Amino acid sequence: MSENKSEKMSVANARKAEAIGREVLLQGWVRTRRDSKAGFSFIELNDGSSMGGIQIIADKDLENYESEIKRLTAGCSISVVGLVKESPGKGQATEVQAKSVTLHGTADSETYPLQKKRHSFEFLRTIAHLRPRTNSFGAVARVRNCACRSIHNFFQEEGFLYVHTPIITASDCEGAGEMFQVTTLDLNEVPKVPDTGTVDFSKDFFDRPSYLTVSGQLEGEIYASALGKVYTFGPTFRAENSNTSRHLAEFWMVEPEAAFFDLYDNMDLAERFLKRIFRDAMEQCHEDMEFFNLRIDKTILETLTKIVDSEFVRLPYTEAVEILTGSGRQFEFPVTWGCDLQAEHERFLTEEHFKCPVILYDYPRTIKPFYMRVNDDEKTVRAMDVLVPKVGEIIGGSQREERLDILKSRMAEQNLDTENYWWYIDLRRYGSVPHSGFGLGLERAVQFMTGMTNIRDVIPFPRTPGSADF
Ligand code: 4AD
Ligand code: MG
């Protein structure tokens, strides 16, 4: 194929009117083939560059017409050299008159699982190696990619520096004890400390217990305390036994952290940030977003457009509790001041009461991690959660406790060993400043933008309790 003079082109580009008149090389996978009585075949070719494929017309006088082209089935991989023409058909600008069709790989229609019909998402999860070839998963992959590009563009344009925080760590940022342990010890013969009978971690790889990170925040604070505005964006891990449509054991989180930043700066940043990624998806993944609007959630484009053009509600936790208790609604988990809000409460506020994103802030200190700044009332901390309809919490963040003595007492309150966090405490000892940050769960964001109901369907290879296939 290297001596072929035809211009290699993506299906996405060949579908544009500008391509008319060009001889191109297209390569991808057959979605459908139908034969006309007049003696030619229509092949719908898709290469993943766009939701829609391109129609290839293959005449019977092509030399492999009977032997190969007429036997093409869904999933076959082919190269097509042909001329891009204006299409007489509706809904497409162009089509391609094939000069040659080269078959690379067949896909036996007796066994190939992706036939032209709708498959359930549950079924598609069992074939995660083939599901990216479907319209839905192709669209999710492109929207997810677009969100990642927007995340970097947004923070770079806002002057944030991208830092890489570690994946293996010895500290539990959220203090929730939901960490996966990392070890090279032989679990069948774990070395023990003779006197105490506890595991001898001096024999382990890192000389101490170590884990997969639940958040890059604490290390993000180190860099913010020197470079001002930073963000980290990477995989995070939670060994929480939550089998819900919104929880993964491995998910991607973007975490900005900024010095000289208070909670209101943090809210402004979060709101600008979310609006930017939603707007970019609608502009840059237009066709995919239309697909989600048609097939997955008929309100998604309207919802996103409204969000981009309006202001988020900002509400202290205490007022949220008043709204919830005064709502007359029977919740499965009754609400009292001091309780952690459940998904049903968050959804009531954002879906029914305000019908827009809500930034809840100033939560009770007892339900939030040690690093959040204690308010003057001493009962609440400068926490904020951004809630959106259907998904609930999409962002969690706070202003951080920058006062040494209060941080230490908060750690004691939560039974944390200050020795393990000596470097974190040092940041308050040397040049401490007010600072804030937050974490956005990438999958929750993609879930919200696409209307996909299960978080397992917005990450290529979901890890959930009892499941790490593919
Ligand atoms: O609210 P979280 O636990 O906050 C933190 O980890 C902070 N250290 C972030 C920071 O301030 N830098 O998690 C942040 C977000 C949640 O709002 C949610 O979107 C997502 O991460 N998240 C999950 N997404 C999928 N599966 C899970 N198990 C998740 N847990 C949290
Ligand atoms: Mg949270």
Task: Please describe the structure with a list of short key phrases separated by commas or semicolons.
binds magnesium ion; binds 4-amino-1,4-dioxobutan-2-aminium adenosine-5'-monophosphate; 2 domains; five-stranded mixed β-barrel; OB fold (Dihydrolipoamide Acetyltransferase, E2P); eight-stranded mixed beta sheet; 17 strands; 470 residues; 12 helices; single chain; BirA Bifunctional Protein, domain 2; 28% helix; alpha+beta
**Number of helical elements:** 12
Mean pLDDT: 96
Could you state the order of secondary-structure elements as H and E? Answer: EHEEEEEHHEEEEHEEHHHEHHEEEHHEH
For this structure, what is the CATH class of the largest domain? Alpha Beta
Tell me the number of structural domains.
2
CATH superfamily of the largest domain: Bira Bifunctional Protein, Domain 2
Q: What is the CA-based Rg, rounded?
A: 27 Å
Total DSSP E strands: 17
Remind me, CATH topology of the largest domain? BirA Bifunctional Protein, domain 2
Low-confidence stretches: none
Percent helix among the residues?
A: 25-40%
How does the helix and strand content classify structurally? Answer: alpha+beta
Biggest β-sheet: strands ordered side by side in the sheet: 7-11-12-17-16-15-14-13
Form type: elongated
How would you describe what is shown here?
The protein has 470 residues and is an alpha+beta fold. It folds into two domains: 7-105, OB fold (Dihydrolipoamide Acetyltransferase, E2P) (Beta Barrel); 133-179 and 214-457, Bira Bifunctional Protein, Domain 2 (BirA Bifunctional Protein, domain 2, 2-Layer Sandwich). The chain has twelve helices and 17 strands. The strands form three sheets. It has an eight-stranded mixed β-sheet, with helices on both faces. Strands 2-3-4-6-5 form a five-stranded mixed beta barrel. A three-stranded antiparallel β-sheet has the order 8-10-9, with no helix packed on it. α3 (135-157) packs across α5, α3 (135-157) packs across α12 (442-450) and α5 (263-284) crosses α7 (300-309). The structure holds 4-amino-1,4-dioxobutan-2-aminium adenosine-5'-monophosphate and magnesium ion (MG). Magnesium ion binds next to β16. Magnesium ion (MG) binds next to β16.
